[in-house]
Amino acid sequence: MSEIKIACSCDNNYVPHCGALIASVFVNNRNNKIEVNILTDGIDNENREKLNLLAKEFKQEIKIIVVDSSLFSIFSHSKSPIKLPLQTYYRLIIPTLFKDYNKILYLDVDMIVCADLAEIWNLDLGNKAIAGVPDTAWNIAPACRRLGYPLSESYYNAGFGLYNLSVMRETNLWNKAIDMVEKSPEKLLYHDQDLLNNIYHGQFLEVSLKWNFMQTFFMLEPSVVKRQKEELEKYIHNPCIIHYTASLKPWFIECEHPYKSEYWKYLKMTPWAERKPVHIYHDLKTLLKYLHIKLVELKFYMKRDKSRIIRKKL
Fold first, then answer.
1. What is the Cα gyration radius of the chain?
2. What angle do CA 68, 246, 277 make, to 5 degrees?
3. CB neighbours of 130 closer than 8 A, spacing ≥ 6?
């Protein structure tokens, strides 16, 4: 049995999705002792009670850690055209927040875990800061150029990471992140992901893509680095962690992800089981936003190859 420490972050609105993630962890890790730490700026009493029920149901532990969101106000001035909630930056304080832990597994809440995590948890990190999976292939070279480090050091997706907290504390992650935001804000396109890669490039330990199976991996011409292609075919039918990286999440009716049902499968095991899928648009503003996303996607795929479409059937 492994004692696995997990961290994630979300606001009150995202708690049900976080609940689906947690349920998937608990179901597939019954032989492990799990501690889930939710970093948040506030979760209401109703959702807190539901999280307590979920923990009791599986005889595991869920901790709610309230973060002072004002600490992250500097990140709200980002000039990136990609807008993300401030909660995504909460991971930057994990090394100092968990001073007694040597490592922790960070997971985005738009994920579903389908496997025993003991294998990745017991990985020897050596002197590496983070174990992770390279980002979508077409993002890697532009990101390395933008951040100013060698392509050989790659660029990793921040949704999944096994953190070597001892190493990260030595490098003073928080201060370095603030320093970059103040001195080089123009370099930051992908927010916390850029910060982590800029600070720890060359200190990532690459692990199998099965631990962070992103949406672009399901394309007919998957956006993966060459060395991952053999692995891709091996794990496309049984990924260990599914990461719903696109804007159309599985709780939206318009989502066509081939593993959309996995989200609903685990949500049904939580106190939020009565929830139903909704449209991504529900008024003129959100409808226009949705149409804009589809237009951008259309142009994006046409620029590359018309055969680049999501695999709807596995």
1. 19
2. 85
3. 156, 161, 162, 163, 164, 168, 196, 200, 203, 204, 205
Please say whether the beta carbons of 251 and 280 come within 8 A. Answer: no
Q: What is the pLDDT of residues 186-219, one digit of tens each?
A: 888 888 999 999 999 999 999 999 999 999 998 8
Structure tokens at 163: 């953190």
Structural tokens at position 68: 């002072």
Closest CA to 220 of 313, 136, 111: 313
Residue (of 15, 130, 117, 99) closest to 62 by Cα position: 15
| Contact yes or no for 228/235 (Cβ under 8 A) | no
- Output the six-digit token pair for 42: 């506030």
* Model pTM score: 0.89
Give the residue from 72, 76, 78 showing the smallest Cα distance to 92: 72
Report residue 122 as tokens: 């017991």
Handedness of CA 54, 56, 58, 64 (dihedral sign): positive
Closest CA to 280 of 232, 247, 239: 247
Say if residues 108 and 211 touch (Cβ distance below 8 Å): no
Task: Report the alpha-carbon distance of residue 301 to residue 117 in Å, rounded.
Answer: 35
One-letter amino acid identity for 223?
S
CA dist., res. 206 & res. 204, Å (int): 6
